[in-house]
Amino acid sequence: MSTNSTAKTRPLVWLVTGCTSGFGRLFVPAILARGDRVIATARDIESLPEISNTKDVFLLQLDVTDSQESLYAKAATAIERFGEVNVLVNNAGYVLSGVWEEVSHEQVVDQFRTNFFGHMNVTRAFLPNMRSRRSGTVVFMSSIAGWLGVAAGGPYSASKFALEGAVESLQKEVCTLGIRVHLIVLGQFRTSILDDNRRKISRPNPAVDDYNSAVNTLALRQVDTNGKQPGNPTLAVERILDAVRREGMMATREEIPLRIVLGSDAGQIVRAQCLETLQQLDKLQEIGRSTDFLDARGIQDYK
Ligand SMILES: NC(=O)c1ccc[n+]([C@@H]2O[C@H](COP(=O)([O-])OP(=O)(O)OC[C@H]3O[C@@H](n4cnc5c(N)ncnc54)[C@H](OP(=O)(O)O)[C@@H]3O)[C@@H](O)[C@H]2O)c1
């Protein structure tokens, strides 16, 4: 993997999706404070009153659910403004909760259109330019929900699990082309994501009583957690900037891995999931091996 693709000696041009709130909003001043330039994007750029176009800031309307054709056009406009985009931050997202039986196909597709296809399509629009320059960094805002499914948390978890898998492949596709890729596995951070007007819970009328407990438990937890999340998003943004620019706490790291797990809650969950997976593997190892062909040893590893 190229390690000098985003050398810190010159200002970098960042493009961040979903800048009206939370992490996206915090990225803009943090990027400028490092001496870099930023293309701040939002579905509605009128919702960015504190940000205006300057020599280092460019406001661009961008809905990540737009068509691929439109996203290619947005990428061309973005690249034209400062001559290049060095760092793409796929940040836009929202939380849809609901149990399998009650959440509709259309609602889940909408969740994926933003949290999964949105990231994939926006990235696809920028890859040709990064590839031709053999340089660039693509950041994806993932989640502990992409490691652990909770009851009634399926739609959001599914979108983040899908993202984790697809980005793992992307990293292997572009690591020899000078393009760095990072998944930021976030714990619970104090943004607006759990505000009543942002998170969505799917409950039909009438609802299935059998699921009252699962749905109400998650909904109550979201309400209780909102505003008390352990993670400080300002500090998370600083660590992401450190990683991309290889500065601060990341300055002396030889290799920065694909996954950057932020938040002590996230660290605990990822660790527990790894341990539980190992335990489950060990319990059924013999059975797992029992289905191989006899000539399986000669076949190339899957990686
Ligand atoms: N906060 C956490 O605890 C946490 C944990 C794990 C992962 N994450 C991830 O971090 C990312 C940012 O979340 P946040 O906590 O900053 O939430 P937030 O405060 O709710 O901000 C979400 C942003 O995404 C934007 N957005 C939603 N749909 C969009 C679309 N179709 N096109 C463009 N922008 C869109 C929103 O814009 P509008 O104002 O137009 O709606 C808003 O600017 C998300 O991907 C989320 O899944 C957050």
Automatic annotation (TrEMBL):
SUPFAM superfamilies per record: NAD(P)-binding Rossmann-fold domains
Classification via InterPro entries: NAD(P)-bd_dom_sf, SDR_fam, SDR_oxidoreductase
Record field: transmembrane: 138-158
Keyword Iron-sulfur: no
UniProt keyword annotations, A-Z: Membrane, Oxidoreductase, Transmembrane, Transmembrane helix
Keyword Kinase among record annotations: no
Stated family: Belongs to the short-chain dehydrogenases/reductases (SDR) family.
Protein's recorded name: NAD(P)-binding protein
UniProt organism field: Aspergillus cavernicola
